[in-house]
Amino acid sequence: MGALWKYSYDDYPDGTHCLYKTACVTKQTSLLALAMGTFDVINISKPSNIGGALIRYPRYMVPGFFSGLVFGLTTCTLTQMRQKDDHFNYIVGAGSAGIVIGACRRSLAVGIPLMLLFGLGGAIYKEVRVRGTEFFPHLKHEYGTFDTYKRDYTLTAERPKYTGME
């Protein structure tokens, strides 16, 4: 299981190692689709046997797998063809992933809004990568003591100097 998490989409620059990057995106979307399918089986559809549960999973797994596949291939191929690494590649790649989900649902009412929403998300993701920031930065968590009400442990306050005599 540890090897499953070791590779990342950001390991190589855009436009190179297309199959590797596509596998990274497809891994994430497939795992998200598996979680959504499990949530559906446990909380929504509640099938009475294992066959009913197994029939529900492709409804989530197929669009999840193919949306990641289409996003990875579209983004990398556009970067190679255009010789530009910009936001447009991510907008088109994410929009095509939204259309794939709409096609799997056989609904334009699902596909068009997802295309716009995913396209906006792709542009935001590229902007975050261009600026060198992170979506979820790693914060160092500090634990308090029994008298935490006396101290301010916010991110902006100065930390008290510990003398060891407290």
From TrEMBL:
GO terms for cellular component: mitochondrial inner membrane; respiratory chain complex I. It is found in: Mitochondrion inner membrane. InterPro entries: NDUFA11. Keywords: Membrane, Mitochondrion, Mitochondrion inner membrane, Transmembrane, Transmembrane helix. It is a multi-pass membrane protein. GO terms for biological process: mitochondrial electron transport, NADH to ubiquinone. Belongs to the complex I NDUFA11 subunit family. This is NADH dehydrogenase [ubiquinone] 1 alpha subcomplex subunit 11. It comes from Hyalella azteca (Amphipod). The gene is LOC108671953.
